[in-house]
């Protein structure tokens, strides 16, 4: 081998070593790039996971707070409904009671007692037993009966006979 060939082989060996070194460097760069991507992916996943956990934690705290407020509102509404229903029952019951008492008082005032009814029947029987009884109504709507009296009361048809006297409505 000639010295030029030796140089050429030496240069080729150097080129081959350099090529191997370049290939080794490319592989190292590829491995480093993969490791960097994995580290970045892990860091991104960790930061996203932490952010999601933080968001979920805050969201669940807010949701729990809102649920507590809704529960308090529901309890308050139920309490008010119960109070309102009792108030309505009391108002309706007292209204019906007052109406019944009012009707009873009205009946007690308007309907005569049993003694009064018996007295009226006795008076009517006594009036029917005396045959010549004459009863009329005046123009003013008063009930009068004809009796023999010295005092002038009412007259009809300008007869100048004033022996028609008013019946006491309080008694009958």
N- and C-termini, Cα separation = 169 Å
Helix- and strand-based class?
mainly alpha
Strand order of the largest sheet: 1-2-3
The main sheet comes to: 3 strands, antiparallel
Order of helices and strands: HHEEE
* Unreliably modeled segments: none
Give the count of helical stretches: 2
Helix content: over 70%
Number of strands: 3
Question: How much is the average pLDDT?
Answer: 84
Query: What general outline do the C-alpha atoms trace?
Result: rod-shaped
Features:
single chain, 172 residues, mainly alpha, 3-stranded antiparallel β-sheet, 72% helix, rod-shaped
Structure notes:
- With 172 residues, the protein is mainly alpha-helical.
- It has a domain at 113-166.
- Helix content is 72%, strand content 6%.
- The protein contains two helices and three strands, in the order ααβββ.
- It has helices spanning 3-110, 114-129; strands at residues 135-137, 143-146, 164-166.
- The protein has a three-stranded antiparallel sheet, with no helix packed on it.
- The longest helix has 108 residues, at 3-110.
- It starts with a helix and ends in a 6-residue tail after the last strand.
Question: Secondary-structure map with pairings?
Answer:
Blueprint: H1 3-110, H2 114-129, E1 135-137, E2 143-146, E3 164-166
Coiled coil: 12-42
Transmembrane segments: 88-111
Keywords: Coiled coil, Membrane, Transmembrane, Transmembrane helix
């Amino acid at each position: 081998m000639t010295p030029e060939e030796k140089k050429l082989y030496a240069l080729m060996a150097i080129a081959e070593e350099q090529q191997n070194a370049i290939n080794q460097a490319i592989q190292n760069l590829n491995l480093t790039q993969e490791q960097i991507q994995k580290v970045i992916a892990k860091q991104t996943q960790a930061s996203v996971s932490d952010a999601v956990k933080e968001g979920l934690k805050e969201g669940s705290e807010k949701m729990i707070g809102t649920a507590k407020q809704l529960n308090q509102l529901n309890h308050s509404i139920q309490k008010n409904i119960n109070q309102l229903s009792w108030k309505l029952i009391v108002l309706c019951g007292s209204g019906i009671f007052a109406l019944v008492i009012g009707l009873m008082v009205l009946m007690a005032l308007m309907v005569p007692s049993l003694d009064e009814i018996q007295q009226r029947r006795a008076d009517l029987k006594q009036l029917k037993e005396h045959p010549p009884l004459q009863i009329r109504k005046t123009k003013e709507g008063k009930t009068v009966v004809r009796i023999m009296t010295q005092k002038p009361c009412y007259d009809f048809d300008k007869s100048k006979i004033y022996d028609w006297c008013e019946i006491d409505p309080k008694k009958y």
